[in-house]
Amino acid sequence: CVRGRARQGRGGLEVPQQAAFWPRVDCLEGGDGVQNDRTLLSAALEVPGLRSRDPGLLPMGQVVSAFYSWFNTDKEYKVLLIGLDNAGKTTTLYQLHLGQAIETQPTIGSNVETVKHKNVHFEVWDLGGQATLRPSWVTYFKATDALVLVVDSTDRARIGQVKDELWRVVGSEDLKGAFVLVFANKQDLEDCMSPADISSSLKLHDIKDHDWHIQACSAKEGTGLVEGFDWMVQRVKNRASK
Q1: 16-33 per-residue burial string, b: 16 or more CB within 10 A, e: under 16
Q2: Which of 23, 69, 184, 206 is the most interior residue, by most CB within 10 Å?
Q3: Where in the chain is the domain with CATH 3.40.50.300?
């Protein structure tokens, strides 16, 4: 709910000092743990070409244009969906793409689909997770904006392998600055590891060069996936505003 008033002044829209008219955009979390509390107005002021001699006075056309460009973009952000075999990567992809679980086969090579979430377009690459295919992940690294690691929360025996693969990937120079979203999948099953357990096993708190987030989910049931991509959208928009 957005509350507040704006008065029309000569030459443009006069914004009240408290800027109550403008909704807040908060940075939820980051690798450095620093919160960035911003308004959409302050972000709009940083759009190239959007300047005013009087910072409290903006032409209405420029305001509308800035907000249109903020919420509507044709840019696709490249996302790599990685994890061991049987983690639920392909099920995750098609829950996000189609909104339903489908019968899947082990991925040989890759699947790619466009996922639109909150007016942000993601080009999501689902990479095969068998041991013989993991070395080929590196060929997809360039120009990647985000990594999504899907973890089978019931597979305690291979959580060490997951950690090794994660740290091999985040150490790549080609992925410098990419966001890392970890889906703790299969939370609908009994005796699964909690997100806190998985975070500890993967040593996520030791990751310093990437913003990261871990999200409990069930790809089969479709729970938790939207919340994970909410975080990614927030990260993308926060970075675009800088």
Answers
A1: eeebebbeebebeebbee
A2: 184
A3: 76-240
What residues are labeled active site?
130
Q: 0.85 exceeded by the pTM?
A: no
Give the 3-state secondary structure of residue 66: helix
Longest dimension (CA), the chain: 68
Distance CA(169)–CA(81), nearest Å, equals: 12
Residues flagged as binding site: 83-90, 107, 129, 185-188
How far apart, in whole angstroms, are the C-alpha atoms of residue 174 and residue 162? 20
Please tell me the distance from the alpha carbon of residue 45 to that of residue 39, in angstroms, as a whole number.
10
> pLDDT per residue over 181-226, tens digit each?
999 999 999 999 999 999 999 999 999 999 999 999 999 999 999 9
Task: For residue 131, give Cα distances in angstroms to 6, 104, 152.
Answer: 59, 19, 15
Binding residues for Mg(2+): 90, 107
Fold of 76-240: Rossmann fold (3.40.50)
Q: Under DSSP, is residue 11 helix (H, G, I), strand (E, B) or coil?
A: coil
